[in-house]
Automatic annotation (TrEMBL):
It catalyses: [(1->4)-alpha-D-galacturonosyl methyl ester](n) + n H2O = [(1->4)-alpha-D-galacturonosyl](n) + n methanol + n H(+). InterPro entries: Pectin_lyas_fold (IPR012334), Pectin_lyase_fold/virulence (IPR011050), Pectinesterase_Asp_AS (IPR033131), Pectinesterase_cat (IPR000070). The active site is at 253. Its EC number is 3.1.1.11. Residues 102-263, 268-366 form the Pectinesterase catalytic domain. This is Pectinesterase. The keyword Signal applies. It comes from the Eukaryota. GO terms for molecular function: pectinesterase activity.
Length: 373
């Protein structure tokens, strides 16, 4: 979908910064501050990351976690960061589920998400819940095809995030730049954010595309998740996907790919993105879709749009031969951006019959796979 004109959207970054600042950095927050130090100690600060982390890089970084005893009264019991670890939040394993607990402070089994993924049984028929405590996990995570039926359960998309900073250059291609890449089927994520904090592409810069999440498995569901990046944030690669109450941020081509998503692709013709009951806002200008392929199919229904949407709405990448085969539809949208007066001729304002198949989870055949919350 949404594609922006180049060079916009610093505001996106400041929103990101504000969000993260509020959740991770507020000095009075209950959240341990060395979390941030840990992040700084591993990240080569990009302009985005330095906005995320507005205070100076502490030289005492990284050792603080081992110095939690009270200097004024060494007789007092040592205070461990794990004293406040909420074991009761971690769901118990059952016959049908395995549970893998991740806490970056080391308060449970795994300190990285990747280590937990690696521990999941190959071709498991159980649901494998990777329970991830709040915090920033600065790591590149890959879920291979054999590690199926995995759930990433975070503690809220504003407080739990997997963050990395590869871009197309550093990873030898946009497709490999994802902070998190999922190749297995039946993946679920709940209440967690995926971020790519590589530097924003400057005008005309090539190789700066930086994917936050690549979802390449079939039958994936995202509930209450955040996707943060600039160019190419969400690579909805292939398979049938469901996004419910998620937040997606980006600039150029920030959702792209060949998935069949309610928000399959066994062929180009049977792919498409459907956005129902969504809200689109921000600054700058975006298109609702740009036709990278001749069979691009995108529908927005019941979606509220601000004037961020370019009046022409859609873009065929200057290839009018695509206008016959692309399917770009709008249905009962609202807001200044939904004014269709100036739309390109191939944009379709759908009638009830045309819209019907895009409006519910039948679009992604979810009746046969989507598990209710
Ligand atoms: C779980 O498996 C055990 C051993 O196979 C069995 O005794 C128990 O009844 C099962 N529990 C449930 C809830 O299915
Ligand atoms: C997690 O740690 C507990 C206690 O140390 C252990 O019993 C359990 O097997 C571990 N679970 C995994 C999935 O490694
Ligand atoms: C596990 O994955 C397989 C293959 O994708 C799927 O058929 C099965 O329904 C999944 N089981 C669970 C519990 O999600
Ligand atoms: C996500 O977090 C919210 C607020 O913390 C909670 O109410 C909700 O049940 C959570 N949902 C999931 C799917 O974890
Ligand atoms: C990517 O590499 C090309 C060629 O080396 C270079 O011109 C470009 O500036 C690089 N882009 C980024 C974002 O590093
Ligand atoms: C829609 O846009 C046209 C052309 O810009 C304008 O004349 C018209 O007043 C707009 N309609 C609404 C309802 O805002
Ligand atoms: C909806 O549009 C299609 C395609 O233009 C047309 O064939 C159909 O008759 C229309 N249906 C209604 C109810 O207007
Ligand atoms: C989705 O809408 C279609 C067309 O209106 C309808 O046939 C189908 O039963 C609906 N599916 C669900 C899951 O509501
Ligand atoms: C969209 O919102 C309407 C009204 O709140 C609701 O009836 C419908 O189920 C929603 N559709 C989806 C796909 O969430």
């Amino acid at each position: 979908m949404a594609t922006s004109f180049k060079g916009i959207s610093l505001i996106f970054i400041s929103i990101l910064a504000a969000l993260i600042a509020a959740q991770f950095i507020a000095p009075n927050s209950a959240y341990p501050r060395y979390l941030i130090d840990d992040l700084i100690s591993v990240v080569t600060l990009s302009p985005i990351a330095s906005k995320l982390i507005p205070f100076e890089i502490g030289s005492s970084c990284c050792r603080r976690r081992h110095h939690h005893h009270n200097r004024h009264d060494d007789n007092k019991q040592k205070v461990s960061i794990c004293d406040s670890f909420r074991h009761d939040l971690v769901p118990p394993a059952t016959n049908a589920t395995s549970v893998f607990c991740v806490d970056h402070n080391g308060c449970c089994n795994f300190t990285t998400v990747q280590a937990a993924v690696d521990a999941v049984e190959t071709l498991s028929q159980k649901r494998n819940i990777i329970w991830i405590n709040q915090g920033i996990y600065f790591e590149k995570v890959m879920v291979p095809k054999t590690k199926q039926n995995i759930t990433f359960q975070g503690q809220g998309f504003e407080s739990t995030a997997i963050v990395y900073n590869d871009n197309a250059n550093s990873s030898h291609g946009t497709f490999y730049s994802g902070s998190v890449q999922v190749f297995s089927n039946n993946f679920i994520a709940k209440n967690i954010s995926f971020m790519n904090v590589a530097p924003m592409p400057g005008p005309g810069v090539v190789g700066a595309q930086a994917v936050a999440m690549r979802i390449s498995g079939d039958q994936a569901a995202f509930w209450g998740c955040g996707f943060f990046g600039a160019q190419d944030t969400l690579h909805d690669d292939r398979g049938r996907h469901y996004f419910k109450e998620c937040f997606i941020q980006g600039s150029i081509d920030f959702i792209f790919g060949n998935g069949k998503s309610l928000y399959e692709s066994f062929s180009d013709e049977d792919s498409g993105f459907s956005f129902v009951n969504c809200t689109i806002g921000g600054t700058g200008r975006i298109w609702l879709g740009r036709a990278w392929r001749p069979f691009s199919r995108v529908v927005y229904a019941f979606t509220s749009m601000t004037d961020i949407i370019a009046p022409e709405g859609w873009n065929d990448l200057n290839d009018p031969t695509r206008d016959q085969s692309i399917f770009y539809g709008e249905y009962k949208c609202s807001g200044a951006g939904a004014n269709a007066t100036m739309r390109v001729p191939y944009a379709q304002i759908l009638n009830d019959t045309q819209a019907a198949s895009f409006l519910n989870t039948s679009f992604i055949n979810a009746d046969i796979w989507l598990q209710p919350l």
